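Quick one: structure for this chain?
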Amino acid sequence: MDSNTEVLVGWRSGSHGWDALVERYSRLVWSVPRSFRLSHADAADVYQCTWLCLAEHLTRIRRPEGLGLWLVRTATRQSIAVVRARGREVPLDLWEPESPLPAPDEVAVTTDRQRRLWTALTTLNERCQRLLRIAAHSPELSYAQVAETLGIKVGTVGPTRSRCLAELRRKVEGLR
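Got it. Here's what it folds into:
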């Protein structure tokens, strides 16, 4: 097999030196990006960029016997660049809303409903306001915990909540 010097001289003179270089170092160059655990596509890009760099700098190689090391260093630099670039990328789906944006008329209707609900809630007595806020924001609480928080009997939580919701419903409907 020809030495690197003979292959480089042959390539520079137009013979088949390039194919011999690729055959000789292909596995080595390919192993570098794969050692960085790059995807197959990214590793293929690094592989191609490494060979492109060699083609661009082939006439500047002073020590042909160090060509393997040069290829490894170049592939390493390329792999690190890909890793850094991937670390800065944000997947596109993080920027897209989870659901389509509502139409402006839907936003207006929802905003109006929320305004009427909060207006009606503030007209309820303090006990109903507190009970409904607890029910809305802490549904996991048991009746015993709600009763203790409000200072009422456990048996009155359910009926009081029902009366408060009925009153809230009447007030919301009255605001239409």
